[in-house]
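Posting this for the archive.
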Amino acid sequence: MRRTHIRTTRLAAATTAAAALALGGVGATATAHAAEPYAYTTTLTFDKNPSAPSDSRLYWRVYRTYESGRQVKVREVSWRAGSGLGVTNECTRNRGWLPNGYYDVTLHTQYNGSLIKGVAFQLSDKKCAGGSATRTELFIHSEMTRTGGQGSTESQRWTNSNPNDYLSQGCIKLNPADIKALAAQYQQYYRAGTKIRGKLAVVS
């Protein structure tokens, strides 16, 4: 995971902690913790819903990770997301939901595939649990035009009243507003076009 925004140097932390400990008491401990250097780390997790695969959840979490290893969650956002066509056999190509495991992720802000367009997160290939199939051409995507608008064809037009729009050929699918919100959060820490290894965890 990429770490960013180091807030203080070790020297400054040590100086502040020493001054706080000289005062003694609970306040000293709290001040010492506050001065500890930290960085932000993030997780992206798709939690599959076996009873309704098209009503699963995608979670984005941000943690403040201190030099000592202590973590404090500072942000959590989640969105409804679907995977597959209601098939929970992960070895079924183009119909089954995504296999569990970790995936490399590359964000594209104006993807221009034959069916998938606009904001899309390209995922690495993954073997299913039985090893009988390797799932390929995997994305987190929605239905939109290359520039993020709504088009006239079904693959480029989202209908909020149609729950089938959360169905996909084995990818992870969000509505347009939600995938744009995810991309905005993601780009605070990672550049579009850069492959981030093991960024997505798929669980059930």
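The first strand starts at residue 38 and ends at 47. DSSP finds three helices and ten strands in the chain.
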